[in-house]
Amino acid sequence: MDRLRVILDITRTHLLARIKQSGIAALGVTFGIGAYIIMMSFMTGLNGLLDGLVLNRTPHIHMYNEIKPSANQPVDLYEAFTDQLNVVRSIKPKKSQLRIHNALPVIDYLEKDSRVKGVTPQVAAKVFYLAGSNELNGAVNGILPHKEDALYNFGDYILDGTPQDLVRDRNGILLGAGIAKKMSLSVGDRVQVSTTSGGIFPLKIVGIFQSGLAEIDNIQSYVNLKMAQQLMGEGNNYITDINVKLKDINIAPELSKTYAKQFEVTAIDINTANAQFETGTSIRNMITYAVSITLLIVAGFGIYNILNMLIYEKMNDIAILKATGFSGGDVRLIFISQALVIGFIGGLLGLVIGYGVSVLIDNAPFETEALPTVKTFPVNFNPMYYVVGIIFAMVSTFLAGYLPARKAQKIDPVEIIRGQ
Amino acid sequence: MKNILEAKNINKYFRNPVLFHVLKDISFSITEGEFVSIMGKSGCGKSTLLYILSTMDTDYEGDLYLGGEKITGQSGEELARIRNEQIGFVFQFHYLLPEFSVLDNVMLPARKLGRKSFSQIRKDAMNKLELLGIADQAHKKASQISGGQKQRVAIARALINDPKIIMGDEPTGNLDSKNSNIVFDIFKKLSLEEKLSLLVVTHDLDFAKRTDRIIEMADGLIIDHHSKMEEESL
Ligand SMILES: Nc1ncnc2c1ncn2[C@@H]1O[C@H](COP(=O)(O)OP(=O)(O)O)[C@@H](O)[C@H]1O
Ligand SMILES: [Mg+2]
After folding, report:
1. pTM of the prediction?
2. Between chains, do B118 and A2 touch, taking CB under 8 Å as contact?
3. Quick one: closest CA in A to B88, which residue?
4. Higher per-residue pLDDT: B234 or B57
5. How far apart are the first and last CA of chain B?
6. Which residue, A15, A192, B83, B206, could crosslink A325 as a Cys pair with Cβ 3.0–4.6 Å?
7. Which of B52, B66, B112 to mutate to test the interface with A (most CBs of A within 10 A)?
């Protein structure tokens, strides 16, 4: 303990005696760590935002009935032709229903599955929006608003309204932003919706839905599940889509296959649907680390240089210390601790500056169509980055200080004393 | 009388630029409280010998004993501890750490030894400075005092851990005769009162004559020992 104190006293005196150089060396570290914190907070904040765009609003498994030709044609079943090459031209899909068979028991079953976080049923309906003599092509999805909100942050995409408004109003509709604009409609107005079977339903606009993707906002609206079933003229067991959110996203591909077989539906998992997504995240992380490490290497060279210079200037001191009984290890510790002090102070300052700039960015206005509820730049204030940052600073300055310190350790005091 | 320092058949070679036998079979010993000086022409190997005796140079043949304990072959770490605890070294040039205060300079070896509390070490250091008559300089920076004062600070530092022996390589070589006398008187007093052994290289015959024994060297050999009586005839 005492030994460490005397060494730290020497360290402090050396650093204070050349406060300018020490300060510049520390500033190098400050830039490296500050940049790391800023980039990391901003990049991961952006990642989080994009997660919000894609991951959060996308079901992990989406089940529906796809209309497609049967894989097995009747001719395949006929024994007499089994070893022949059968060619069937111009296959048409069999008339089948969009409804999921036995949807309610399936939903029940899924909700009991321990791997499943939540299940939301939907009813998709093709409609026309009517306004005066205009007819607009569109689609209406019947949903359970509170459940969609809980699982997919549905509320984030509603302007001038909440999912709750839809729950309250049986005849309510959350109109797509593009449709509302084209038809000059706003909240409180009524819109008429006609179905493919000819029925016309007047619905009250309780909110505007905006996903940020024009091709969706121009056709898509949301109503209550019951309303959609009514539009289709069907009962409450008519469900066209089942969306599943899992506790662990990674089992989605495997589980979707199981479900597809088990329930005889088409099941698409999120990884297949958004294969390119992960790549973007990891590339952004790579860039962040590459830039930070580059800055720290530059800072490291600065420290290496300054310590080398210091040791050259301090040859006499080193010789005296050794002659009066400080060991090579003590001398090495003196210089390594100088590097570490520079790293620690520079790193700490880097954290403070990184935090300050992150706060500034966090408050800078950032408006995007895609996320109507986001008003400022996304910043991730994960304390982990601050811990990693300071460790980064210490490790890089240690490495930069190690070689010069070893040189100091090996200095032969006799050579120095003789040289006088 | 107990031997404090004992050198047995010390040989040393320099290999660079050419092989050079610089110390040739040096053997001698110093007893407790003995004040010994070494004289000889420049280049005869006095400094080289002193670096070996002070354990800083380990590249030699022969055996070295300090207080009966064999020093030769010990690890660098162990030698540093021995230097710290048992040997005080005073150089020709006042080697102080320029950025530290006079007091800090004196305290450092004791703080390294770590045997006493900080405040005790501080008190001891002040006592040593007092003994050398420079207590009033204690809080000045080491770079801000005169040459003679620096040399006395270096002696105070050599004394701080109450070593068994003090070695000096021309410690008065840079001092005027007045300061030189002060240093000699301090050494003499330490040898008489504290039973401290001293081994001092000097060119100053008057200084040497007043020591207990003169070791005379030439070309890497000890050619003579002059005890107190014989000194008179030099
Ligand atoms: N590192 C070295 N390499 C080669 N020769 C050296 C070295 N150091 C000293 N010498 C030589 O060794 C001899 C003894 O030197 P030294 O012990 O310094 O003499 P002095 O008695 O004057 O103190 C001198 O001739 C000197 O030139
Ligand atoms: Mg010499």
Report:
1. 0.74
2. yes
3. A324
4. B57
5. 26
6. B83
7. B112
Say whether A392 sits in a helix, a strand or coil.
Answer: helix
A410 CB near a chain B CB, below 8 Å?
no
Over residues B125-154, the pLDDT tens digits come to 999 999 888 999 999 999 999 888 998 999
CATH number of B3-233: 3.40.50.300
Q: Which of A256, A220, A22, A239 is nearest to A127 (CA)?
A: A220
Q: In this complex, do A324 and B92 lie within 8 Å of one another by their Cβ atoms? A: no
Phi and psi, residue A318, nearest 5°? -65, -45
DSSP A98-132: SSPTTHHHHHHHHHH-TTEEEEEEEEEEEEEEEET
Residue B220 CA, closest ligand 1 atom number: 14
Residues A264, A71 contacting (CB under 8 angstroms): no
Alpha carbons B183 and B149: distance in angstroms, whole number: 10
Quick check: B14 contacting A, CB < 8 Å?
no
Q: Give the domain ranges of chain B.
A: 3-233
Amino acid A225 reads L
Q: Find how far residue B103's CA is from the centre of its chain.
A: 20
- pLDDT value of residue B155: 92
CA nearest A228: which of A163, A172, A269?
A172
